[in-house]
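Entry 14. Structure prediction run on the chain below.
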Amino acid sequence: MKIVFIGAGRLATHLAPALRCAGHDVCQVYSRTMASAKALADSVGAEAVDDVEQVTTSGDVYIMAVADAALTQLVQQLASGREQKVFIHTAGSMPLSVFEGKMVHGGVLYPMQTFSKERQLDFATIPVFIEATDDVAMQVVETLANAVSRRVMPLDSQRRKSLHLAAVFACNFTNHCYELASEVLKEQGLPFDLLLPLIAETADKVKTLTPHEAQTGPAVRFDRNVISNHLNMLEDKQMMKDVYELLSESIFILHQKTVPRND
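Output returned:
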């Protein structure tokens, strides 16, 4: 299939080469900046463009790997002259209905993973969740998804939104906590890599235990002495203190159902 990529960000940087390796022709890459478009296009032997008007009408499939805020506008801009083409977006939080009334054949191919341009990933291990407006689009989405991943699952828009929300908690918020931890260590001249064995064991535990079973720490038993000491250490960092208090309370509620007041 001749594939046009709309967007050249982190996800596209991994998905486009994976599709090319699977035998598909990535013929063009569009991005708002030529540098981004060219970097991805050069890696897959495609043409780079930075003007929506230059996006070819000869592609078989248009994969839209762009920010949610840009998706609706780009769908509108690209619809004319391509109404019978297959358009696929890659967003976890955007519904399939974004194509409604614009394109006949719309689909979703959502790889649930955190992507960074600097890191190589084995795309075959990434779970991919798919949805489509009709049989034609579903056949294309299934073909592309199965070409790059060993784990492909149909999922409707509402459940995909819930999956995306869960992923934000499990990945983005967790990584932010790493950053907060790094700040605490940096103030004492300690390196972040001291935490790596702890982080690795925490991640490994939930492969065999539920997150509920794996939870440890002072918040589980609401250890007032430890918690109060930590809060005192954060006295001049109000936002971090608020995060600590809210997470501690949430952990305790989930494990004990009631939280004693801090009188």
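Residues 69 and 94 are 10 Å apart (CA to CA).
Filed with the rest of this week's runs.
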